[in-house]
């Protein structure tokens, strides 16, 4: 009888999959919300220059060409320091890295309020790009310390929706500041905008140093069993990766498909620049003079874009088809941009076109990074993906420079917008014509 009682009283065990879900849910809720907010701040401080343009270009005597050059110089600083920042993160950890990055970019963004000449504006933009350079790739690297590859895709996709949230917040906030604070304390509205939107990033950097944990083994908020589980999962994945050859980056440079993917990614900043930088000016030229109203209107395309990004991603995942989804997104971006000059005096049509362009751009952005990992051979993926990201930033330099030059020398931004549409379509064609469907290996 005693023996039978003993067999009935057994310890309750947690089903392995349920245990894993619980642990990763705990890690996700600890890390992702804060990093998401930080990325919102990053895009806010990067893109608010489009609203400042409504006032400050006139104040410091800057032409459209000079403004476009200054916007592009952000990406020059970004490219130079993207890789060094990630190498530094590996050495000192994410807490110190984000402390440096966010405090510096917050202070540089705030300091932009006091530029008085185009040259000072150029310097501020280069410094902002250099300061922010390591944030996005650093966070992506940080995710590899906590999540295996099978879980990182969904974490990264949630993290990237911060771009949409930033766009939705940035317009109304920046418009309200320009409308309400101009002249307060002898400062212009655009000066208050840089100060109010820049300082929170610096504060968040200080909080990151206290709140974040560099690696699972350092997490006081995890139990010993939870730490062992995470470390074990990541070690098993690392062992599997060592079986793949890590080829020289020169192998990637010799593959035509690498250059096709690089050009496709180059086209994404071209599609984005109208949405992020020039949309407030386009709305103002349609006859909307109230900055608060401009800000509210500029948020609408991001709302529709967020919905489109979700629908594109869901359809692409369900069908396991990437190429034509990217092509359709590129066509939408081009369609929305190419007709903007003809809708200059029709606010309703203008907003519809901006919504279409934003949906296309965000679709391109969310779909692109599903293609290189599934297509590039394992021998070039490690080097190729990083190089595609760096070279693609030339799109961020060339697009605003081209639009600004066209606006100054031709008296209209139409030619620049046509160029954006052409580059977007060519980016889509580079994928569907140069990347065979049978070569994309996904299950």
Q: How do the helices and strands line up, and which of them pair or pack?
A:
Elements: H1 2-8, H2 16-47, H3 49-52, H4 56-59, H5 64-92, H6 94-111, H7 118-132, H8 135-144, H9 149-160, H10 162-180, H11 189-211, H12 224-241, H13 249-253, H14 256-285, H15 291-319, H16 323-338, H17 347-368, H18 372-375, H19 378-392, H20 394-410, H21 414-434
Helix pairs in contact: 2-6, 2-9, 2-10, 2-11, 5-6, 5-7, 5-8, 5-20, 6-7, 6-8, 6-11, 10-11, 10-15, 14-15, 14-17, 14-19, 14-20, 14-21, 15-17, 16-17, 16-21, 20-21
Mean pLDDT: 84
Order of helices and strands: HHHHHHHHHHHHHHHHHHHHH
Using the coordinates above, name the CATH class of the largest domain.
Answer: Mainly Alpha
Rg, Å, rounded: 23 Å
Describe the overall structure.
This is Major facilitator superfamily MFS_1. Keywords: Membrane, Transmembrane, Transmembrane helix, Transport. The chain crosses the membrane at residues 27-45, 65-85, 97-116, 122-146, 158-178, 190-212, 258-279, 291-312, 324-342, 348-368, 380-403, 415-435. This protein folds into 2 domains: 21-243, MFS general substrate transporter like domains (Growth Hormone, Chain: A), CATH 1.20.1250.20; 245-443, MFS general substrate transporter like domains (Growth Hormone, Chain: A, Up-down Bundle). It contains 21 helices and no strands. Helix content is 79%, strand content 0%. The radius of gyration is 23 Å and the shape is globular. With 443 residues, the chain is an all-alpha fold.
